[in-house]
Amino acid sequence: MSRIFGTKFELVCDVLDRYERDPSNLIAILQEIQDAYAYLPEDIMTYVATALEISPGTVFGAATFYSHFTLEPKGKYVIKVCDGTACHVKKSADIITTLESELGLNENKKTSDDLLFTLEIVACLGACGIAPVVVVNEDVYGAMNIEKTKTLIEKVRGEEASDA
Ligand code: FES
């Protein structure tokens, strides 16, 4: 049995049992599994397909169709940088470049190796009046620039270090 099943394997079985291993409950099953793992591990999706007696393609298809499912582990802090028109005009690209540099990320690498940060580029967040906008988990930061972005990352890292 793979490492990822570990102690939470029981959780997956419990979820499957509660939904009576009924394929029509696939979305609800995936949602509960994602709530537990914060993403949908590939081998668990394969297991779910076997348990529901449906093809892995059906499970992966559902997981990739709905944007609120993620197939990659995310960092503890999900940083959303708005690159909608108002934010773009106010140099959101500088903020993205700064974050990629500070966190060791790039276009293809969205989550830091320490699983602390995930960087997402998003469309208009509906706060154009305070563009450019950055959201860290639930916290909104407006009128951002390179310096404020660096300070924000330092603050988060500092809080993490003091929690350790
Ligand atoms: S364009 Fe960024 S909040 Fe609207």
Describe the protein in words.
This protein is an alpha+beta fold and 164 residues long. It has 2 domains: 9-65, no CATH class; 77-163, Glutaredoxin, CATH 3.40.30. The chain is built from 7 helices and 4 strands; from the N terminus they run H-H-H-H-E-H-H-E-E-E-H. The protein has a 4-stranded mixed β-sheet with strand order 2-1-3-4, with helices on one face. Strand 3 (134-136) and strand 4 form a beta hairpin. The radius of gyration is 19 Å and the shape is elongated. The structure holds FE2/S2 (inorganic) cluster (FES). Residues 82, 84-87, 124-128, 131, 133 line the site of FE2/S2 (inorganic) cluster.
Layout of helices and strands:
Elements: H1 9-18, H2 26-37, H3 42-52, H4 56-65, E1 77-82, H5 85-89, H6 92-103, E2 117-122, E3 134-136, E4 139-141, H7 146-163
Parallel strand pairs: 1-2
Antiparallel strand pairs: 1-3, 3-4
Helix pairs in contact: 1-2, 3-4, 6-7
This protein binds FE2/S2 (inorganic) cluster.
FE2/S2 (inorganic) cluster binds at residues 82, 84-87, 124-128, 131, 133.
